[in-house]
Specification:
Radius of gyration of chain A: 14 Å
Low-confidence stretches of chain A: none
Structural class of chain B: mainly beta
Oligomer: heterodimer
Strand content of chain B: over 45%
Structural class of chain A: mainly beta
Largest sheet of chain B: 6 strands, mixed
Number of helices of chain A: 0
Shape of chain B: globular
Chain lengths: 116, 112
C-alpha cells in the first residue's frame, strides 16, 4: 500500500537548471496538490488539480509548472531554478467525493531541494 | 485571501499533563473545513483531527479534541494526557473549494 510516493528525496541544483519533482498516488484520489515548506511559514500551496486535465494555481505558483495527464501522477516542474526555491516540497492527495473538501490530505515524504 | 494564524511558535508540556494549542483564521466563506496536522522529526505529515465548519459539535479523537468557535474564527487543539510521542510540529489548516492554507506551526516539546 504505497499511498503517495515522491521522488527524489533530496536534490541539489545550480541556479538556472531545470528539474521535475515526481508525485504518484495509488488511491485513485481526484485531488492532488504541491506545497513548499519554509522555516517559520508552514506549508504554502503551489498548484493543485481536481482531476486529470485540470490544474489551478495556489498561493505561490510563480516559477513552477504542473500538468495532470493521469489520475495517478502530478509532476512539478522547475524550469529555471532560483535560490529562492530552496525548500522542502510536499505532494498531497485526497478524495473529493461530491466536491466536498473534508477529506484529509495524504502526504508524500517530501523532497528537500537546495538551489545554489 | 484566507489566513491562518498560530500565535504560539513553541509550547512545552509535562508528560501526562494537558496542553492547548491556539489557532485563528480569517475567511469570508461559509463552507470550509479545519484540520490539525502533526509533523514529527521524520517530516511526515499526519492528520490529527478535522472539523466541519457547519458542525457545532467539537471533534474529538481519543486524547485530542478541539474547541471550535466559529463566530470568533478560533480552532484550538487540546491534547490530554500528553505522551513523549506527541512531541512534534503541529499545523492548523483551513480548506475550502479553491484554497488550502496552513498556519506557521507550533513546536510542542513534551518533558518527561
Amino acid at each position: 500500500n504505497a499511498g503517495v510516493t515522491q521522488t527524489p528525496k533530496f536534490q541539489v541544483l545550480k541556479t538556472g537548471q531545470s528539474m521535475t519533482l515526481q508525485c504518484a498516488q495509488d488511491m485513485n484520489h481526484e485531488y492532488m496538490s504541491w506545497y513548499r515548506q519554509d522555516p517559520g511559514m508552514g506549508l504554502r500551496l503551489i498548484h493543485y488539480s481536481v482531476g486529470a486535465g485540470i490544474t489551478d494555481q495556489g498561493e505561490v505558483p510563480n516559477g513552477y509548472n504542473v500538468s495532470r495527464s493521469t489520475t495517478e501522477d502530478f509532476p512539478l516542474r522547475l524550469l529555471s531554478a532560483a535560490p529562492s526555491q530552496t525548500s522542502v516540497y510536499f505532494c498531497a492527495s485526497s478524495y473529493l467525493g461530491g466536491g466536498v473538501y473534508n477529506s484529509p490530505l495524504h502526504f508524500g515524504n517530501g523532497t528537500r531541494l537546495t538551489v545554489t | 485571501a484566507q489566513t491562518v494564524t498560530q500565535s504560539q511558535p513553541e509550547m512545552s508540556v509535562q508528560e501526562a499533563e494537558t496542553v492547548t494549542l491556539s489557532c485563528t483564521y480569517d475567511t469570508s466563506e461559509s463552507d470550509y473545513y479545519l484540520f490539525w496536522y502533526k509533523q514529527p522529526p521524520s517530516r511526515q505529515m499526519i492528520l490529527v483531527i478535522r472539523q466541519e465548519a457547519y458542525k457545532q459539535q467539537n471533534a474529538t479523537e481519543n486524547r485530542f479534541s478541539v474547541n471550535f468557535q466559529k463566530a470568533a474564527k478560533s480552532f484550538s487543539l487540546k491534547i490530554s494526557d500528553s505522551q513523549l510521542g506527541d512531541a512534534a510540529m503541529y499545523f492548523c489548516a483551513y480548506r475550502s473549494a479553491d484554497d488550502m492554507r496552513f498556519g506557521a506551526g507550533t513546536r510542542l516539546t513534551v518533558k518527561p
